[in-house]
Amino acid sequence: MIILSKNMKKYRVFLFLIFLLQAISFDGSASTRQDMGPKRLEVTHEYDKSYLQIKAHPFEIAGICFTAFLFIFFLTKKRKHKKELDRVHTELTIALDAVYMAVWRYDVKKEVFTAVHRVGIPTTGMTKAELGSKIHPEDMQKYENYLHALTSGEEEIKNEVFHLNLDNGNVWTDVYAIGLKDKSGKVSHIIGTERNVSAEMKQKNIYDKNKQMLEFVLKAVHITPWEYDVESQTVNISDNFLQQSNLSQNSVALDEILKYMYPSDAQLLIQGLSNLIEETCSLMVIQIRSKEPGMEDYQWFEMQAVAYQRYEDRRVRSIIGLKHDITDLKHTEELVRLREKAEESNRLKSTFLANMSHDIRTPLNAIVGFSTLMAETDDKEERQEFAQIIEANNDMLLHLINDILDMSKIEAGQMEFIYSEVNLNDLIQNLGYTFRFKIKKEVYMSLDIPSEPYILYTEKNRLTQVLSNFISNACKYTFEGSITVGYEIEGKQIYFYVRDTGKGIEKENLPHVFERFAKFDTFVKGTGLGLSICELIIQTLGGEIGVESEVGKGSTFWFTLPISERVES
After folding, report:
1. In the structure, what pLDDT confidence band is assigned to residue 548 with cuts at 50, 70 and 90?
2. pLDDT tens digits, one per residue of 427-452
3. What is the pTM of this model?
4. Spatial CA neighbour of 467 closest among 452, 449, 450
5. Are the CB atoms for 26 and 65 separated by under 8 Å?
6. Exposed, middle or buried by CB within 10 Å (0-12, 13-18, 19+), for 447?
7. Is pLDDT above 80 for 105?
8. Strands of 27-127, DSSP E
9. 446-453: long-range pairs with CB below 8 Å, 24+
């Protein structure tokens, strides 16, 4: 083969003549049969990729040698293009078959569909109306809109899934099409692909059905699923649960949600989310109160959550959880609590009547009996002794009646609380002076108060009543050692205490110390109402009350009062 460049075109004839001379140069005597094979010359033009092939076939007739020439001119460029197209078509067909995809063509002017590759369209084509008759009625409008969007040029490329009613049953097909425009800029044809997605749609329908059932169940039990994005600090819920939530849209900033929550509960939620993010816990379960925007009443919700998505470095990316409305449950619990309280009140009333019948009768009998004896005797010493007994029983009876009245007023919300500024040092010093003469000789009373007095805005009489009760009990049960009365400032509250070295309280009795009629020593006089009244007073003042005790070592009765807020009467 001889390859010619563009500049060697003028030598083509010369090369042909050389080949011709070579072909006829042999004769019968000089050549063998093997030399009489065909000779070939190929001349190729690089600039247009075409070539000329000349074949010389020598043959012998009656001892004379002849040469036959065959000229073949191939236009390789066109042939190469055709081969390339055939290759591309083959590869494209294989690719389409691999993904079970068919190809069709739609003539906009004729409104006729024709098959390009594996489409169930007759060779004569199918009109727009004929194909529309196979579309499921529910998708008919979608079919019209689909073609209009492409033929009008509103959308150049469009994808849609259609439901078809074919002879072999219902089929879902995923259609992807593009509009082709002519020289005038109008869409003349549409080329589209379609793929049978019936299996996928069946699975999707099962998934959607299960999802719908799950959402129905969650709605029925007032549970809302939610997701918290750690980076954006937003809470997201689905459209289906938007109505039963207090959110105005699907995605809301956490700060916006916290505005509608009870202040202490908002902090509880923040801490719970932080624990999940920092992985100090794997499950968050909290109960919070939240209200609808513009509403005054809070509703109770239980929030449960776990870490969901993570970054590559294992940091928590999102948190998912459930929000359960437990308002009705809380109301039920409140009703149960009120019922138990009513039952407890009935029981206490019976106990109260039993105790009062004895406790009231005892001082009354003493008063009546010694009053009679006092009137019958002329002995001055006896009369004085009887008078002291009568006075002591009068005090006991008066204290008992006062306790009963205080208990009733507090429970009915009728006890009057008059607030004023109280010098705590003066109040405790006066109490120390009052009880100094009531303690036993072997007992020493000390006052533990700051050098600078503190002024507290509170109810002076009730504060005095509680401290007096604590000191009185300490005097009853402390036979040697000391009794210490004092207070300390702890942040935004004041800690009051009465500490003694008395007999102490059994460990099993500590949870019942502030219950009504709780008496652990039957030999000591008292109604058992004093500490219960103290608890109600401290709760009304916004504080807490408690006791610490160890048998044989003494007890510490304490309570706290807030100093950051004023409670007006």
Report:
1. very high
2. 999 999 888 888 888 899 999 999 89
3. 0.40
4. 449
5. yes
6. middle
7. yes
8. 39-45, 50-61, 64-74, 101-107, 112-117, 126-127
9. 446/482, 446/483, 446/484, 446/485, 447/484, 447/485, 447/486, 448/484, 448/485, 448/486, 448/487, 449/424, 449/425, 449/486, 449/487, 450/425, 450/487, 450/489, 453/423, 453/424, 453/425, 453/426
pLDDT of residue 19: 53
The predicted pLDDT at position 127 comes to 92
How far is residue 402's CA from residue 466's CA, in Å, rounded to a whole number?
Answer: 14
Average pLDDT over residues 497-505: 92
Query: Cα angle vertex 493, ends 487, 495, to 5°?
Result: 25
**Which token pair is 267?**
């902090």
Q: Cα dihedral sign for 537, 539, 543, 545?
A: positive
Kindly report, residue by residue over 35-74, the tens digit of the pLDDT. Answer: 555 555 555 554 455 555 555 556 565 555 555 555 444 5
Distances (CA, A) of 550 to 439, 510, 523: 21, 10, 20
pLDDT in tens, 325-356: 888 888 787 788 878 777 777 776 676 666 66
Nearest in space to 473 (alpha carbons), one of 511, 504, 516: 504
Query: Token pair of 172, please?
Result: 């879902």
Amino acid identity, position 56:
A
Mean per-residue pLDDT for 134-158?
92
Residue 81 or residue 475, greater confidence: 475
Q: Evaluate whether 497 touches 556 at the Cβ level (below 8 Å).
A: yes
Distance of CA 396 to the CA centre of its chain: 61
447 versus 567: the higher-pLDDT residue is 447
Which residues are CB-contacts of 232 (< 8 A; sequence separation ≥ 6)? none
End-to-end Cα spacing for the chain: 120
238's tokens? 């689905």
Helix (H, G, I), strand (E, B) or coil at 105: strand
Output the pLDDT for position 35.
Answer: 52
- Report how far residue 80's alpha carbon sits from residue 51's, in angstroms, rounded to the nearest whole number: 13
Strand partners of residue 54: 41, 71
Q: CB 289: neighbour CB atoms within 10 A?
A: 19
